[in-house]
Design brief:
Length: about 100
């Protein structure tokens, strides 16, 4: 199970900023990015080493300053780190897929 991030308790408060950033991404053609995925990026990359005094205005600024290229680079690397898709398939599923 994933451990809680220091800033997780701010998520409700910064939700309008998250929504705004997602709307921007959607306007740019990246409709499949979800709020959870954006939050995962922020907690694992942008706020990897959180400051003890997580000031709300700094968190909002960080969210609004996310660039799509930064997010996509992170998502691509995470996809490569994920488990191999074929390792979770049974032999029968592999044969069916490769027909």
């Amino acid at each position: 199970m994933l451990s809680a991030h220091l800033y997780d308790h701010y998520r409700k408060e910064v939700q309008p900023a998250l929504k705004s950033k997602l709307e921007e991404f959607h306007l740019l053609g990246y409709e499949t990015i979800t709020e959870d995925e954006l939050w995962f990026y922020l907690t694992k990359k942008k706020w990897k080493k959180p400051a003890d005094s997580g000031r709300l205005f700094i968190l909002v600024q960080d969210i609004l300053n996310v660039k799509i290229a930064e997010y996509m680079n992170f998502a691509t690397i995470e996809a490569y780190r994920a488990d191999d898709f074929f390792s979770v398939l049974s032999e029968e599923e592999k044969k069916e897929l490769l027909k």
